[in-house]
């Protein structure tokens, strides 16, 4: 828009005439004077209007006027433009908004989750909701930055596959012309196929999971941030995953994260600690329970000043077919999870890179190697020792910001009940 100033830049334009464009956030009537809070991508500012105007929240306006310093006693220390205001001289309405279904003017958007999601294109505009996705963008940017620094090439992988990635029932079937196909449960197989091409790759991809359980930490479509590395051993992979995890979180510049040295524990060591600390005996379980994850994170924060903890050596049987069993004790695998503030945010492993061993593993997981023909080619023709990991974007966002439900950390969350709109009325 010609001559438009961004709201934040008005701080440097005291006494000058400006034109700002944005959305009416709040309208306050004080006798004959009307105050508007107007919001654009840079910030929010108070506009003073002396003649009555028919303006409502979410109307899109361009306002010309003079930037004035506010009287000392009316300075608002909570916003970056709190020392100034604009006295309006001309108002142009670019788009009128219908009456809102709820009040968006308060400090909190006091809505139940279903309403928050039913009106998503509206509620995303709310500053505190929008902030979640600004942080999420930082996580994505931080991940990309560290992955590139580690010499990974960014790849884009398909989301439709002829066989299921991880096996199991949690796979969406799709009609593919005259055939049945599947939505990928992770970018796993494709990123592995790229190791003999680039050695090191990363991808940001959707993972489709037909998880029939309704929890606060599972989505039907999640976003995974994946890396895969050739010529690495288990110790290298632990160093790499901890580097990527902590650098990605550091990039958000959230000062509240504890970055002490990350403790590394095997699953069995973890369960021993939990038994000692809480008396709960899960020492024979094949995975951590949600409460175990909370307890071991509390332990790590208390004893190592770390919000992150790495858990290794999950039982081989509980892991996908491509996971390398520990040669020293094949019942357990060279696998790892990274936990952050009480929840798993990442999984990964050293992979089986020997062709024959991989074929056997596919068979022993009850699957048919014929369905993995192209994937197996990568191993038939020279695959170095390799491994990698996968971070869940929404999980990281949720626990960084302390959100109660993962749906709040997805722009347009999909679950059993909802694909934008509620599926059952
Ligand atoms: P969980 O045990 O927590 O259900 P998972 O072990 O099945 O997760 P992985 O296959 O290890 O998940 O996926 C890698 C990462 O992707 C997880 O650590 C998690 O952060 C994220 N993730 C996986 N499934 C989901 C989901 N359904 N919704 C949101 N995030 C997910
Ligand atoms: Mg996992």
Describe the structure.
Helix 3 runs antiparallel to helix 6 and helix 7 (267-278) packs across helix 8 (290-304). The chain folds into 2 domains: 7-95, Beta Barrel (OB fold (Dihydrolipoamide Acetyltransferase, E2P)), CATH 2.40.50.140; 121-422, Bira Bifunctional Protein, Domain 2 (BirA Bifunctional Protein, domain 2, 2-Layer Sandwich), CATH 3.30.930. The strands form 5 sheets. An 8-stranded mixed beta sheet has the order 6-10-11-18-17-16-13-12. The chain is of the alpha+beta class. The protein has helices spanning 113-118, 120-123, 127-149, 188-193, 195-198, 234-251, 267-278, 290-304, 355-364, 373-380, 393-401; strands at 17-30, 33-39, 44-49, 60-69, 84-95, 153-154, 160-161, 173-176, 179-183, 200-208, 221-230, 264-266, 308-312, 325-326, 329-333, 335-340, 343-350, 386-392, 414-415, 418-419, 421-422. The structure holds adenosine-5'-triphosphate and magnesium ion. Magnesium ion (MG) binds next to strand 17.
Layout of helices and strands, plus pairs?
Layout: E1 17-30, E2 33-39, E3 44-49, E4 60-69, E5 84-95, H1 113-118, H2 120-123, H3 127-149, E6 153-154, E7 160-161, E8 173-176, E9 179-183, H4 188-193, H5 195-198, E10 200-208, E11 221-230, H6 234-251, E12 264-266, H7 267-278, H8 290-304, E13 308-312, E14 325-326, E15 329-333, E16 335-340, E17 343-350, H9 355-364, H10 373-380, E18 386-392, H11 393-401, E19 414-415, E20 418-419, E21 421-422
Parallel strand pairs: 3-5, 6-10, 12-13
Antiparallel strand pairs: 1-2, 1-4, 2-3, 4-5, 7-9, 8-9, 10-11, 11-18, 13-16, 14-15, 16-17, 17-18, 19-20, 20-21
This protein binds adenosine-5'-triphosphate and magnesium ion.
Adenosine-5'-triphosphate binds at residues 186, 209, 211, 218-219, 222, 224, 344-347, 390, 392, 394-395, 406.
């Amino acid at each position: 828009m010609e001559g438009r100033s961004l709201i934040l830049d008005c701080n440097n334009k005291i006494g000058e005439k400006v034109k700002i464009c944005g959305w009416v956030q709040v309208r306050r009537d004080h006798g004959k004077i009307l105050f508007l809070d107007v919001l654009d991508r840079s910030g929010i500012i108070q506009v003073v209007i002396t003649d009555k105007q028919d303006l409502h929240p979410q109307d899109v306006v361009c306002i010309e006027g003079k930037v004035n310093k506010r009287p000392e006693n009316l300075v608002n220390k909570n916003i970056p433009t709190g020392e100034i205001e604009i006295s309006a001289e001309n108002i142009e309405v670019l788009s009128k908004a219908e009456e809102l279904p709820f009040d968006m003017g308060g400090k909190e958007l006091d809505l139940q989750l279903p309403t928050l999601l039913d009106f998503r294109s509206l509620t995303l505009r709310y500053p505190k909701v929008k902030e979640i996705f600004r942080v999420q963008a930082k996580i994505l940017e931080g991940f990309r930055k560290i992955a590139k620094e580690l010499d990974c090439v960014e790849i884009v992988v398909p989301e439709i596959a002829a066989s299921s990635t991880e096996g199991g029932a949690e796979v969406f079937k799709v009609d593919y012309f005259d055939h049945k196909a599947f939505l990928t449960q992770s970018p796993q197989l494709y990123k592995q196929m790229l190791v003999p091409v680039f050695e090191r790759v990363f991808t940001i991809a959707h993972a489709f999971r037909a998880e029939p359980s309704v929890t606060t930490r599972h989505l039907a479509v999640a976003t995974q941030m994946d890396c895969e590395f050739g010529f690495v051993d288990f110790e290298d992979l632990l160093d790499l995953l901890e580097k990527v995890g902590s650098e990605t979180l550091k990039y958000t510049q959230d000062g509240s994260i504890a970055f002490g040295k990350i403790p590394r524990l095997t699953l069995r060591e973890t369960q021993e600690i939990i038994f000692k600390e809480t008396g709960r005996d899960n020492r024979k379980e094949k995975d951590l329970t949600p409460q175990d994850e909370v307890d071991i994170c509390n332990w790590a924060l208390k004893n190592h000043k770390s919000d992150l903890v790495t858990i290794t050596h999950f039982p081989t049987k509980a892991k996908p077919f491509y996971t390398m069993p520990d040669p020293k004790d094949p019942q357990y695998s060279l696998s790892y999870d990274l936990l952050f503030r009480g929840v798993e945010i990442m999984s990964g492993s050293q992979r089986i890179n020997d062709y024959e061993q991989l074929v056997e593993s596919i068979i022993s997981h009850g699957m048919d190697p014929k369905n993995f023909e192209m994937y197996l080619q990568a191993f038939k023709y020279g695959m170095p020792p390799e491994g990698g990991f996968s971070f869940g974007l929404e999980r990281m966002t949720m626990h960084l910001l302390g959100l109660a439900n993962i749906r709040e950390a997805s722009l347009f969350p999909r679950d059993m009940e909802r694909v934008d709109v509620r599926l059952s009325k």
